[in-house]
Amino acid sequence: MKFQLKRLWSQILIFFSVNLGALGLRTGFCYPLFYCHACPAATSACPLRSFEKSVYKGNFALDQILYPILILGFFGTLTGRAICGWACPIGLLQRATGGPARKLKKYSLVKKIGRHRLEPYLRYTKYFMLIGLVFVTSYFIGFMFTDVCPIGVLTGTIPIIILEPYKFVPSSFFWPAIGIFILFIVLIFIVERGWCRYFCPIGAFLAPFNKVSVLHIDVDEEKCVHCNLCVIECPMAIDVPNMYRDSECILCGKCINVCPRDAISYERF
Amino acid sequence: MKKFFAVQMSLLILVSVSFAGMLYYTDIYEKTQGGIVEVLCLSCIKLYPMTSTDFTFETGTGAPHPDFILDSLKEGPVFLHYSEDACAACDIMFPSLLEFLKVKPEKDKSYHTVTTFEDQPVPYYYIYLDDEATSEEWLSTFAIYDKDHIHGLPMFSVVTINYAHSGIIEPYYTTLYGAFKDNNKQRIDFFSELMEEAFVLYNENLPGFIK
Asked: Which CATH architecture has domain B40-209?
C-alpha cells in the first residue's frame, strides 16, 4: 500500500511540475507524457503538436520530429510505459475514475464489453490514432488530432474559458471536440484506464519501448500459482502471469502489491 | 542476456547523445519554446479570440511604438500581418489578405511594401515569425501590438493616429486575432470597414502628426 502511495505522490508532484507555467516557467522541452501546451499553466510542449508541425501539409522538419522522439525515447528506454503509470496527469485522472470503473465491472454489460473477443484488437486503435490522426492527416490534410483532442479540451479549453470567459468564442471544432471530450469522460468512468488502453497516442509511442526498457515487471513462473489476483487488480487488464515485457504494462506495480507469493517484481535490465 | 543489455545500453547512449547534440547544435529548444509553448495554439483550445475592433493607444507591453512604424505612419495607416509555419488559421486568412490589400508576399518570408486601399497608401508588413531573416525590431511588434494579450496567431494590426488625452497626436491601433468570418468576401468587407475607420482618423489627424 505504501508503495502505491509513493506512486500517488509521484503523480501529484509531476502534475504540479507540468503546470509550473503558472509561475512563469515556460521551457522549450516537450513533455514525455500527455499534457497540452495550450493549458494556461503549461511548462512545456505536447510532443504530438511537435509531430504534427513537423509534417504539416507535406512539409518535413527533421528536427521537430526527432526532438520529441528522443525525449520520449529516452524515458521509454529507461522506464518503458512507467511514464503512463507514474507521471502522466491523465493517468492520475484515470486513477481517480478507476474506482467507479471497477464498481461498474460487476454489471454484466460492462463485463461483456471487457471480455468481448474484439477487445484485444480495440487496443490497436491507439496506434491508428498516432499514425493516422497525428501523422498522416497532418501531412495530407492539416491538423486533425489537436482540433478534437479531448486532453486539449480538458487542460486547455476549459481552464481558458474559466479564466477568461469573455475573451474567446468557439471555433468550428469546439462542439465536435466537446462531444469527444464527453465520450472520453464516459469512457474513463466505465473502463478503467480506458484512454490509456485504447486511444492514447503517447501510450502507443511508448508501448514498444516496454520490449527493451531497462525497467520492467517480471513474473517468477516457479513461484506463480496462477491465482489470478494480479489479473483482477491490473488496471490495464493484462494477463499478468503469462506476460513478458507486455507493451500494455504501465508498471504501476499493483500486481506486485497484490501477489501473495511475491512472484512479481520490478526488474532492471 | 549480455546481448540484450548491450542493446539497451546502446539505445540509451544513442538517444542521450543525440538529444544532447540536438540541444547544443540546433535551435530546436528555442523553436519549441517560441513556436509551441509561448504562442497560444488556437486549434488546441478550439476557440478563437473575440474579435473586437476597438482602437487603443496603449501597447500590449507598454513599450513605445517602434521607429519604423512611426516612419511608416507618415505615409498612411499601417497594416501588420503576423503568421507562422504550421498555422491552420493563418492559412485560412492568408488568401483573404492577399486579395484585400493586393499584395503578394511569399507565405514563409517576411515582407514589406506600400500598397493602396481605395487609392490611398497603406504600408503593409507581413511578419512571418519563423523566418530567420525577420529583424528583431519587426518581431518585437508581435508583443507590442498584442492588444488583448492573446499571443495567438494569425494576428492583424491596423495602426493609425488619433488625438490623445496628452494633447498630442499619437499612434492608435487595433488588433484582430485568429480566423474570422465565413468566407473571403465577408473578411474583405470586414477589413474594408476597419481600414475606412482608420483612414478617417488618419486624415483628420495627419496635419498635427506630421508637424
From this structure: 3-Layer(aba) Sandwich (3.40)
